[in-house]
Amino acid sequence: MLSSTPRTRHRRMKANGRSDPADLYAVLAAGRIAHLGVSVDGHPMVVPTVYGFDQERIFLHGSVASRSLTTGAEACVTVTVLDGLVLARSVFEHGINYRSAMIYGVPESLEDEAKLYGLRVLTEHVAPGQWDYARKPSRKELAATTLLALPLTEASVKISTGPPDDGDGPDAALGLWAGELPVVATWGVPVPDPQLAGSIAVPAHLAAYTGRPI
Amino acid sequence: MLSSTPRTRHRRMKANGRSDPADLYAVLAAGRIAHLGVSVDGHPMVVPTVYGFDQERIFLHGSVASRSLTTGAEACVTVTVLDGLVLARSVFEHGINYRSAMIYGVPESLEDEAKLYGLRVLTEHVAPGQWDYARKPSRKELAATTLLALPLTEASVKISTGPPDDGDGPDAALGLWAGELPVVATWGVPVPDPQLAGSIAVPAHLAAYTGRPI
Asked: Looking at CA atoms only, how far is residue B55 from chain A in angstroms?
């Protein structure tokens, strides 16, 4: 069970709240960008960053937020996947279908083997197959990379699915169409770097992305 | 020109920073979900929410964050659109192509005509055509809606496009494929509410979504 602390307890839309870790992993598996929220001199700042995760931690590329990541500062990391629009009979009942995870904690900056491990996990989440295909980080490149880890212990998951709620209310008599409009997000066709020698073909693991859901 | 304050000045990846308001509007037009960052008792919290915007303000559906939106509290609202993966010869040069806007300010809760206006702008951004098609909010529904507005005066825009950077470096000799893998995000086919009378057809403005970029 995911922890229930005052801030992860679901105050609104309780029907959407989930407490099974499998739901958390599923949301993190579906997303590619996390929004990292920190306080900088008391002012909120939210930066987008790529991430990866294992059973225990989420790994973030920290350079985008490096100036704000003083040791011991709290963070909230949110991953949201938009699945579709909920089109109701009334504007009031309109909404979105989405999956969202919020993770609270104090990010830790990783070093050495832990950093290399986290970077591999992150790379394999964002671009599966590339860790083994591309040149791996040198010692100097590793030193120039900031990698953060946040435990998955204090997390809140919300998943909203299905049609609008007003199908059995008085607005059903309006005779308006209602339903869902799904988002279809897939990987496109790889675009070669113009500087690439023409003889280098797209490797199989990248060609296989095309048409797959993101 | 967008303002340049200490926190919106681009400290990293200067080449990606933009200061033309047209870029800000373009990013906001391309996104559907904003991540609203606030401090709750000094702890960062980042919540996803739908939004709309006009030339001067971004409008947010505030109920998801209502407990944290005490009057006068500062916020950071970030909208990010993932456009693709940047696949380089080295893991170190991997990245993403994206468009991102960060807006800082103190959200104002809207009432009466301003709230109705903001809600229309928001609805027409998220689901164009639905404000005129669906039943508009009653007085009671309006009272139950929290709508926030944030001025667009203090904003930071970053746009990253193009191929990886290592095509003219030593790694080019590795003979590895490199390039971009674009994200293709479109609206799918409308799914009728199971409670819908079979005789109600999908209206033209919704049928026209299918296949269009999000």
From this structure: 22
